[in-house]
Amino acid sequence: MDNVQDNDRRFIYFYFHRNESEKIRQVVPAHVQYWKTANLKGYVGGQFGDRTGGLISFVASSLDEATEIVLQDPFVLEDLLVEKWIKEWILETRIGVPRDKR
């Protein structure tokens, strides 16, 4: 899996779009470009099948750092999200053993 250092933490950015499909279509290329070129460790992401939003996961050293990264997302900058969450995700890499308990 990821080569995550002890001080690195995995975060999930989970969001839903506003009902502004034309504006969202205009901003999607900038959103995709931002995340693909941010060079974030452990980045993985994509949209939901019903296109109502998406989920992105990446590694950062703190919630503050993760929040700073998310706040630069073009969807956030263009006020296109009705809801968003940033949560630390403690990924289990071995069955039943969280990464911080190995």
Q: Layout of helices and strands, plus pairs?
A:
Blueprint lengths: L8 E9 L3 H17 L6 E4 L5 E8 L2 H8 L3 H4 L3 E8 L3 E3 L2 E2 L4
Antiparallel strand pairs: 1-3, 1-4, 2-3, 5-6
Description:
- The protein is an alpha+beta fold and 102 residues long.
- The chain has one domain: Alpha-Beta Plaits (2-Layer Sandwich), CATH 3.30.70.1060.
- Helices cover 28% and strands 33% of the residues.
- The chain contains three helices and six strands.
- Strands 2-3-1-4 form a four-stranded antiparallel β-sheet. A two-stranded antiparallel sheet has the order 5-6.
- A hairpin with a 2-residue loop joins strand 5 and strand 6.
- The chain is globular, with a radius of gyration of 15 Å.
- 16% of the residues are buried.
- The mean pLDDT is 89.
What's the helix-strand series?
A: EHEEHHEEE
Distance between termini? Answer: 15 Å
Query: How many E-type strands?
Result: 6
**SS field, number of helical segments:** 3
Structural class: alpha+beta
Molecular shape: globular
In total, the number of domains comes to: 1
The CATH homologous superfamily is termed: Dimeric alpha+beta barrel
CATH topology: Alpha-Beta Plaits
Strand order across the biggest sheet?
2-3-1-4
Assign a percent range to the helix content: 25-40%
Low-pLDDT ranges:
none
Q: Biggest sheet, open or closed, and with what strands and sense?
A: 4 strands, antiparallel
Mean pLDDT: 89
Going by CATH, the architecture would be 2-Layer Sandwich
CATH top level assignment: Alpha Beta
Write down the Rg. 15 Å
